[in-house]
């Protein structure tokens, strides 16, 4: 299993340490912006002129009197208006109020001397200046308004604040009085018009009364009076109903008695009448008849039918029958007479009620214009009375005091110390804003920076392992010695490189980069030095034919080298040079003729690589930037392995990705990435790659090596380069 195999990319989540890393890396920008903002805020704070403030508080209410006036309904209770306070805010800042303040204090002249070289300011200019110095603030959950004024002079600020409050109060009272008097005048004009209407209506009523010849009683009523009063009409109606009832009863009884008389005869009718009609004479006759008949029966039994007493008694009985019959006939005649009388009386009552009703309707129609005119007159008189009351109430209300509409609660007094600028607050805000802007700018720049920042960035974007991390300001290991604090980083790189190759025969390595200045040459030189120190035969080939630099590190001339061999001007033994280290050799680039730019893709170059593979354990090829020329791509396709050097925070990630794609496109074997020029002091995430080893291992041996070895001279420290053959 490959120990350096890259795991699939995972979704990255920012940790607090990632934010702290950005702050540490961008601390210069943060500090610069912080100092700039703080210094600017401090200078502006101390340069700004000092200003004093004075404030007055006023209590404002809706238009009303100190006591409930006649014109105020409901005891002066008024509905809530959510826009009242805001409206008064705008009124206080209007030209109406501020113009009066300017005139009272002559601010145009005073400020003209200060700001216009003695010339009087225009009213609009003075109002603009005054508005800029006024700050209105409502007192929460109250009807109070605080008027705060700022000025370079404490006395001036207090005068302006008090003048604004007084001007607003005077304006409110004057406006209320003006509106009230204007309303009273309009009401008085309407009252005169109403008075004229009432006069004309009264004349019409009098004329109609005279024409209709109406009595005082009829004219004083509100509606047309009927000929019969309601009680009389009601009484007549009761009589009519009673008469009709009695008539029906008597008629029914008479009719029934007649039918009985036909069926029963006079004798039977005489027996039935007492049950319907009370008659004492008939009752007496009936009793006498009953006694006579009983006596007749007794005497006939005692004396016989021819006896004088029987005959006398029988004559008496016949006489009683005749009287009873006559009485019955008299009662029936009286009953019929009563029915007739009731019928006539009922007819008279109905005629009388109908006639009175008809006369009332006629009279009502005749007198209707009069009563309509009278009602119209009453309405006009009532409206005139309302106007009269309203005018009187408004006149009284105008004269009532109205100090509660605007009440100055606290007068403005000159302040003892300036309130602007607030130096501690401004400096504190400068510090806070400086930090916020600095950190924000740092994170914004970090967001715009698409270069490589971490190993995770490389492995996530390039899908390739990181073989080594090289710290910043690395020197030449040959000059610094084997115990150089940077040597361990290259030893880690060497170890990872050896583990990453799958075959020991793969010993030619090209070091490439996307752009210039990423540290390829230094990486090649130091990595070769580490291999050489481990006893492996190592060769450095400067194949950067555009800008060769390795010969400068080796302190040799570049007149003889790779190009001379490829152009068959010299042999391999003549162009390879040795160094002080027995296992480290060097092949310079040589001078490149202008007509031989494609020399690296020649068959001679391939033969050279095969020859060097046989002679050395490891061969390193330096190359130009792969994005600029094709030489690096050619080398990547011809050697066994390729290492890509990426400088920390230099080029955008897409450029490095493109370089990797170019290597893979030509068939190069990219074994890994080297992160170069890491600032360990700023980025603590890389500290463990070299800092731990150096701090805990090399420092522990530093004292021992110092006692055992003497410091080398300058000449000994340099490489001793000479011809190998």
Q: What's the layout of helices and strands?
A:
Elements: H1 16-25, H2 27-47, E1 52-60, H3 84-92, H4 95-105, H5 107-115, H6 123-133, E2 134-138, E3 144-151, H7 154-212, H8 216-220, H9 230-276, H10 280-303, H11 308-399, E4 406-410, H12 423-448, H13 455-462, E5 466-471, H14 477-480, H15 487-500, E6 508-513, H16 520-533, E7 538-542, H17 550-554, H18 562-566, H19 572-575, E8 576-578, E9 584-587, H20 603-615, E10 618-622, H21 631-638, E11 641-647, H22 653-665, E12 670-678, H23 687-708, H24 714-717, E13 722-723
Helix pairs in contact: 2-12, 4-6, 4-7, 7-11, 9-11, 10-11, 13-22, 15-16
Account of the 3D structure:
The protein is α/β, with parallel strands linked by helices. It folds into 4 domains: 14-48 and 421-447, no CATH class; 52-185 and 402-410, Bacterial polysaccharide co-polymerase-like; 230-365, no CATH class; 458-698, P-loop containing nucleotide triphosphate hydrolases (Rossmann fold, 3-Layer(aba) Sandwich). It is 60% helix and 10% strand. It contains 24 helices and 13 strands. The protein has helices at 16-25, 27-47, 84-92, 95-105, 107-115, 123-133, 154-212, 216-220, 230-276, 280-303, 308-399, 423-448, 455-462, 477-480, 487-500, 520-533, 550-554, 562-566, 572-575, 603-615, 631-638, 653-665, 687-708, 714-717; strands at residues 52-60, 134-138, 144-151, 406-410, 466-471, 508-513, 538-542, 576-578, 584-587, 618-622, 641-647, 670-678, 722-723. The strands form 2 sheets. It has a 9-stranded mixed sheet with strand order 5-12-11-6-10-7-9-8-13, with helices on both faces. It has a 4-stranded antiparallel sheet with strand order 2-3-1-4. α22 (653-665) links the parallel β11 (641-647) and β12 (670-678). The relative contact order is 0.10. Mean pLDDT is 80; it is low at 1-11, 690-694 and 696-719.
């Amino acid at each position: 299993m490959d120990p350096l195999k890259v795991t699939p990319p995972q979704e990255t989540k920012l940790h607090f340490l990632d934010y702290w890393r950005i702050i540490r890396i961008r601390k210069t920008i943060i500090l610069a912006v912080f100092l700039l903002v703080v210094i600017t805020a401090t200078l502006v704070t101390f340069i700004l002129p000092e200003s004093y403030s004075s404030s007055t508080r006023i209590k404002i209410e809706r238009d009303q009197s100190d006591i409930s006036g006649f014109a105020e309904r409901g005891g002066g209770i008024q509905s809530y208006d959510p826009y009242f306070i805001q409206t008064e805010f705008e009124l206080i800042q209007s030209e109406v109020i501020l113009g009066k303040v300017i005139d009272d204090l002559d601010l145009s002249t005073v400020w003209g001397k200060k700001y216009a070289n003695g010339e009087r300011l225009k009213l609009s200019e003075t109002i603009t200046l005054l508005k800029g110095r006024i700050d209105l603030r409502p007192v929460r959950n109250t009807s109070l308004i605080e008027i705060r004024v700022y000025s370079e002079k404490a006395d001036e600020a207090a005068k302006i604040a008090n003048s604004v409050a007084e001007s607003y109060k005077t304006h409110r009272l004057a406006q209320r009085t003006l509106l009230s008097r204007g309303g009273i005048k309009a009401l008085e004009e309407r009252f005169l018009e109403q008075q004229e209407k009432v006069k004309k209506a009264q004349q019409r009523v009098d004329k109609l009364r005279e024409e209709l010849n109406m009595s005082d009683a009829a004219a004083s009523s509100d509606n047309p009076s009927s000929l019969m009063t309601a009680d009389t009409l009601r009484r007549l109606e009761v009589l009519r109903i009673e008469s009709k009832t009695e008539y029906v009863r008597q008629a029914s009884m008479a009719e029934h008695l007649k039918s009985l008389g036909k069926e029963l005869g006079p004798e039977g009718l005489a027996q039935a009448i007492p049950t319907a009609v009370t008659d004492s004479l008939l009752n007496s006759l009936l009793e006498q008849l009953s006694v006579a008949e009983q006596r007749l029966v007794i005497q006939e039994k005692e004396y016989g039918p021819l006896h004088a007493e029987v005959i006398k008694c029988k004559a008496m009985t016949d006489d009683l029958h005749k009287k009873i019959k006559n009485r019955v006939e008299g009662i029936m005649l009286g009953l019929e007479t009563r029915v007739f009388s009731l019928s006539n009386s009922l007819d008279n009552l109905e005629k009388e009620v109908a006639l009175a009703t008809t006369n009332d309707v006629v009279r009502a129609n005749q007198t209707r214009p009069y009563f309509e005119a009278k009602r119209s007159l009453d309405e006009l008189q009532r409206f005139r009375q309302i106007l009269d009351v309203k005018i009187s109430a408004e006149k009284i209300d105008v004269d009532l005091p109205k100090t509660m509409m605007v009440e100055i609660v606290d007068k403005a007094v000159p302040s003892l110390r300036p309130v602007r600028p607030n130096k501690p607050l401004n400096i504190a805000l400068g510090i806070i804003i400086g930090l916020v802007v600095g950190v924000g700018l740092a994170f914004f720049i970090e967001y715009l920076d698409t270069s490589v920042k971490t190993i995770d960035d490389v492995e996530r974007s390039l899908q390739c392992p990181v073989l080594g991390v090289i710290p910043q300001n690395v020197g030449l290991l040959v000059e610094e010695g084997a115990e150089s604090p940077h040597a361990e980083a290259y030893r880690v790189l060497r170890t990872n490189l050896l583990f990453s190759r799958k075959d020991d025969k793969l010993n030619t390595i090209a070091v490439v980069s996307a752009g210039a200045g990423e540290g390829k040459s230094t990486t090649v030189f130091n990595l070769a030095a580490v291999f050489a120190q481990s006893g492996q035969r190592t060769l450095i080939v400067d194949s950067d034919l555009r800008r060769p630099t390795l010969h400068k590190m080796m302190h040799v001339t570049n007149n003889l080298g790779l190009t001379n061999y490829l152009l068959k001007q010299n042999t391999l033994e003549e162009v390879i040079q040795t160094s002080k280290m027995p296992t480290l050799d060097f092949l310079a680039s040589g001078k490149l003729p202008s007509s031989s730019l494609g020399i690296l893709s020649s068959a001679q170059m391939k033969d050279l690589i095969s020859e060097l593979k046989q002679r050395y354990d490891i061969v390193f090829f330096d190359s130009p930037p792969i994005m600029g020329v094709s030489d690096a791509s050619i080398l990547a396709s011809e050697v066994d392995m390729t290492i890509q050097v990426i400088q920390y925070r230099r080029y955008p990630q897409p450029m490095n990705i493109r370089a990797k794609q170019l290597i893979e496109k030509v068939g190069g074997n990219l074994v890994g990435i080297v992160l170069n020029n890491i600032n360990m002091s700023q980025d603590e995430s890389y500290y463990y790659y070299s800092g731990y080893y150096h701090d805990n291992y090399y420092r522990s041996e530093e004292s021992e090596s110092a006692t055992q070895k003497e410091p080398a001279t300058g000449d000994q420290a340099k490489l001793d380069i000479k011809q190998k053959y």
